[in-house]
């Protein structure tokens, strides 16, 4: 087959570039995807009970980037969903990020913003140099909240305690001195009204775009003539792991459909201290879907499996740099997206990166 562009991976990065190239440049694109569906990790579908669920865990769209919001809004309407997350601690359900409501419920007392500031001031641990994720947390909110919300959750999520993780994993801890219980404060937020997959299908509905599912890049590349290649898969795989394998933390998703209309009070409930799973998602909250049953999903972190979270350690950044150097030497090959850049990126950041790359190519 002969095309102008070969694009590998049909997630946000690949679909955005395919759409732009097909519409704006009127060039032929072959979009190769090894899974049996488009949408990458944001893929959603109606399960056998007719409930719209997300195959790879909860994906909530939020951004302050108007250009990205306007771009995607050509392909979908948005509902007004506002994301809220509860955590189950000390037998109570409290909102995250920590805010006045969280603290009042947790400690059975009232707080003014000033009293909360005093509370943290009296609990903060003096740390001369922030060396790890524990330092980040205890230096801001003290040991007690660290133990309640962060210590065990991090161990489940990453397999190690926060004092063994780079500070960047926790980075800045959002603690709020008001009663804003929204999880994200971005200007634009919501879910695609009819789901992500419908949105991707609209993006790709163009005669210049040819989609090949269930096909790995390496099976296709020898049989395709193209002028430019855009690769959104794992960069180490592209280079046959010549500098080593870039590690990821993975997840198992366990779905359950229950004969109740509603299972929990928020779309996502975190379990920092109990059970082996980190959180439970109930999908009906996202789309305000009316149904007499509900589907929930448990997330179990694990060390091997599909690549989800790059491991934030200096040695792996070093390994990635070697791949990046190789990538920069290639002509007419472009790397974009979370797997190609070995970075945790939100969906809006991936779209922004893809639109930027489009301007370049
Ligand atoms: C559990 C979880 C929850 C998340 N929640 C949010 C959220 O709430 N909000 C948010 O903004 N972001 C969220 N994200 C991040 C979001 O998933 C990413 O930003 C987004 O999926 C990145 O798009 P992408 O195109 O770079 O990668 P992907 O979506 O991973 O797409 C890459 C595609 O390339 C394909 N591919 C890989 N290798 C090959 C190959 N060799 N040949 C052919 N195809 C290949 C893959 O199958 C995949 O479909 C979450 C991530 C995870 C893991």
Any key phrases for this structure?
361 residues, 19% strand, alpha/beta, 5-stranded parallel beta sheet
Overall description:
Helix content is 32%, strand content 19%. With 361 residues, it is α/β, with parallel strands linked by helices. Strand 3 and strand 4 (52-54) form a beta hairpin. Helix 5 (133-141) runs antiparallel to helix 6. It is globular. The model has no long low-confidence stretch (mean pLDDT 96). Flavin-adenine dinucleotide (FAD) is lined by residues 8-14, 32-35, 40-42, 57-60, 216-217, 232-234, 237, 251, 308, 337-339, 345-348, 350. Flavin-adenine dinucleotide is lined by residues 8-14, 32-35, 40-42, 57-60, 216-217, 232-234, 237, 251, 308, 337-339, 345-348, 350.
Summed up:
The chain has 361 residues and is of the alpha/beta class. It has twelve helices and 16 strands. Among the domains are: 5-43 and 193-247 and 310-360, Rossmann fold; 96-169, no CATH class.
């Amino acid at each position: 087959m002969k095309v102008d562009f070969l694009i590998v991976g049909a997630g946000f990065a690949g679909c955005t570039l395919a759409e732009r190239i097909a519409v704006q440049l009127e060039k032929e694109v072959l979009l190769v995807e090894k899974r049996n569906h488009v949408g990458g990790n944001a893929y959603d579908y109606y399960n056998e009970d007719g409930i719209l669920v997300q195959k790879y865990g909860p994906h909530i769209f939020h951004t302050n980037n108007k250009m990205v919001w306007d771009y995607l809004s050509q392909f979908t309407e948005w509902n007004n969903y506002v994301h809220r997350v509860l955590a189950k601690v000390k037998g109570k359900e409290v909102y995250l990020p920590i805010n006045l409501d969280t603290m009042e419920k947790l400690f059975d007392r009232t707080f003014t913003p000033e009293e909360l500031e005093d509370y943290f001031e009296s609990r903060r641990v003096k740390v001369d140099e922030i060396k790890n994720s524990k330092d980040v947390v205890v230096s801001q909110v003290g040991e007690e909240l660290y133990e309640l919300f962060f210590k065990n959750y991090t161990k489940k999520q990453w397999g190690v305690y926060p004092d063994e993780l780079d500070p960047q994993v926790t980075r800045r801890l959002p603690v709020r001195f008001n009663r804003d219980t929204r999880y994200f404060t971005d200007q634009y937020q919501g879910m695609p009204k009819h789901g992500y997959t419908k949105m991707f299908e609209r993006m790709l509905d163009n005669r210049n775009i040819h989609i090949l599912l269930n096909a790995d890049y390496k099976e296709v590349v020898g049989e395709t003539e193209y002028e430019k290649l855009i690769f959104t898969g794992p960069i180490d795989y592209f280079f046959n792991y010549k500098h080593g394998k870039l590690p990821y933390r993975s997840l198992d998703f366990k779905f359950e459909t229950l004969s109740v209309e509603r299972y929990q009070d928020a779309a996502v409930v975190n379990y920092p201290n109990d059970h082996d799973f980190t959180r439970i998602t109930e999908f009906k909250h996202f789309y305000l879907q009316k149904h007499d049953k509900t589907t929930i999903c448990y997330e179990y972190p694990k060390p091997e499996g599909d690549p989800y979270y790059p491991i934030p350690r200096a040695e792996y950044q070093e390994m990635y740099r070697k791949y990046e150097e190789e990538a920069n030497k290639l002509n007419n090959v472009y790397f974009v997206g979370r797997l190609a850049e070995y970075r945790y990126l939100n969906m809006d950041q991936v779209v922004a990166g893809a639109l930027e790359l489009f301007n370049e190519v």
